[in-house]
Design a protein that fits this description.
The model has no long low-confidence stretch (mean pLDDT 90). The protein has one domain. By secondary structure, it is mainly alpha-helical.
Amino acid sequence: MPDITTPDAWLILWIAVGYLFGAIPFGLLSARIFGLGDVRKIGSGNIGATNVLRTGHKPAAALTLILDAGKGAAAVLLARHFAGEDAVQLAALAAFFGHCFPVWLGFKGGKGVATFLGLWLALAPPVGIACCATWLVGAALSRISSVAALAAAGMSPLWAALFGAQSALVLSVLLAGLILLRHWQNIQRLRNGTEPRIGARRK
């Protein structure tokens, strides 16, 4: 049997922990708790808070947002408490992947924005706060969730550089790139002028 006390095995363990935290489908669970059915059959079919909001049930959407952010933060904080910073960043990236590609749902998950914000709030609070503020400004100006998400992700490497999180610059670029890829269809709809606004219901 492999020795789990070796550094490489320890890092692999925290990648697994981060992924399993991220893979918890809180949007799906929240919708079912509130009797909203399968959120994958509503709107965009996404399991994130924005699509849960399209049911018209704000408490379910708020709960999804909090829990999706919380699982990213939990992965980071646990790794930081029990391991080093290398494990922290790997756990953060794995949590993001877990949300986007959960094994329980055939690797079809959300787009990772709430988890992205949560892990940054835990990883480097000033960067997380700046990303949240960027999202809020983007949402207020455009009333489109994907625009706010792309703005927050795109600005995150700059915030990491400005607020002293240079060690996480590579992570910030990776996460920003992944959010861009996860929002590729949204970008096409933005170009076509068909992207729905926040709170709008889609059949």
